[in-house]
């Protein structure tokens, strides 16, 4: 078991997936990838042969299929199924963020590229690198997990849905065009914890910590601090816009009651 601190500052215990179960899930995914690659190769070869294309195009198609299946399969599955592939689904595993929340496309892409290049195939000696790094990590993280900020756990119970923030309307236009991809996960988590704990802080701590976070956030986003607005509203607008882009409303409904405090 490992304890995670969610974006709402809630302690969550999840069992870490170790090498035996992860290896079994990986082998299932490899079989699926081989079948998928064979099917796509037959289709591509049929199209090229019927069109009487040069055989060099067949070599190109093979290379594209190999790279596409090795990277595209895990990235697509983990993005659509929120941290699961067919192998992980059969073994009851799930990839989560370091704070216990669901992953998105960025995390899946980082894990997929690292898996294809470093952990398993090109430089990974057929998984030897992934096994060694997992054995040396207390949470059994391979290099792809370290780079993406993720952990593989046993998903015996559903993950708690994220608590969504509501932006002040007068700051929605300011937050809309912000380059939020430049905001690191650690800083975003600190802002969410500040918002969720705001009412428990003293007035002095509310102001000083809020000003420090606003300064850090605006510095990372390379935008000036909006004048005339309290830190609570600025940070709430940033997190609300970040959630709007990353968490589709149909999949993550807003909790009522209890939204993060962002008003005056």
UniProtKB/TrEMBL annotation:
Residue stretches spanning the membrane: 30-49, 56-75, 112-132
InterPro entries found in the cross-reference section: RDD (IPR010432)
UniProt membrane topology term: Multi-pass membrane protein
Pfam families named in the record: RDD (PF06271)
Compartmental location: Membrane
Predominant location category: membrane
The RDD domain, residue ranges: 19-149
Keywords for this protein: Membrane, Transmembrane, Transmembrane helix
GO CC terms: membrane
Name the UniProt record assigns to this protein: Putative RDD family membrane protein YckC
């Amino acid at each position: 078991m490992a304890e995670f601190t969610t974006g709402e500052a809630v302690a969550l215990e999840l069992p870490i997936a170790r090498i035996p179960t992860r290896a079994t899930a990986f082998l299932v995914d490899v079989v699926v990838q081989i079948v998928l690659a064979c099917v796509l190769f037959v289709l591509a070869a049929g199209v090229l042969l019927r069109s009487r294309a040069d055989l060099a195009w067949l070599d190109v198609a093979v290379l594209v299929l190999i790279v596409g299946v090795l990277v595209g399969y895990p990235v697509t599955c983990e993005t659509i199924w929120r941290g699961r592939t067919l192998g992980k689904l059969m073994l009851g595993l799930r990839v989560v963020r370091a704070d216990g929340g669901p992953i998105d496309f960025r995390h899946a892409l980082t894990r997929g590229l690292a898996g294809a290049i470093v952990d398993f195939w090109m430089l990974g000696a057929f998984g030897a690198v992934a096994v060694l790094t997992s054995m040396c990590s207390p949470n059994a993280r391979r290099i792809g997990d370290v780079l993406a900020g993720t952990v593989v756990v046993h998903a015996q119970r559903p993950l708690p849905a994220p608590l969504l923030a509501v932006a002040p309307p007068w700051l929605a236009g300011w937050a809309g065009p912000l380059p939020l991809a430049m905001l690191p996960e650690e800083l975003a988590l600190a802002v969410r914890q500040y918002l969720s704990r705001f009412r428990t802080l003293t007035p002095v701590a509310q102001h000083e910590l809020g000003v420090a976070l606003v300064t850090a956030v605006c510095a990372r986003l390379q935008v000036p601090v909006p004048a005339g607005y309290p830190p609570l509203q600025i940070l709430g607008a940033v997190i609300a816009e970040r959630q709007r882009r990353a968490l589709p409303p149909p999949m993550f409904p807003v909790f009522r009651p209890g939204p993060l405090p962002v008003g005056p």
